[in-house]
Design brief:
mainly beta, four-stranded antiparallel beta sheet
């Protein structure tokens, strides 16, 4: 069983070939492919965490869709001063499917 821990949009995700991951928005190349940097590689009983060896490892993924996360409501209020502030936010996300770990 081969899997890798990759740096994906500011977080680390455990991925295998065929797994689908939702991460912060990334820009794909003209073919719709993304290369993710590996932090750890597990190949059966062999665990690779050396930075020089991980520089040669490539985890490629194809972009399935660009989407937006759920609406987050931000409200601030201070008592007796009349201060109220309401703000919303939706995170830009990308859903990718891992195609290859070399």
């Amino acid at each position: 069983m081969v899997f890798a821990i990759v740096r994906a949009g500011g977080r680390q995700e455990k991925v295998e070939v065929g797994s689908i991951v939702t991460m912060n928005r990334v820009v794909a190349d003209d073919k719709g492919k993304v290369t993710l940097p590996a932090v750890l590689l597990v190949d059966g009983d062999t665990i690779t965490s050396d930075a020089e060896k991980l520089a040669k490892v490539q985890v490629t993924a194809e972009v399935l869709e660009d989407l937006r996360g759920p609406k987050i409501s931000i409200q601030k209020y201070k008592n007796k001063t009349g201060y109220k502030k309401r703000q919303g936010h939706r995170q830009e996300l990308t859903r990718v499917k891992v195609t290859d770990i070399k």
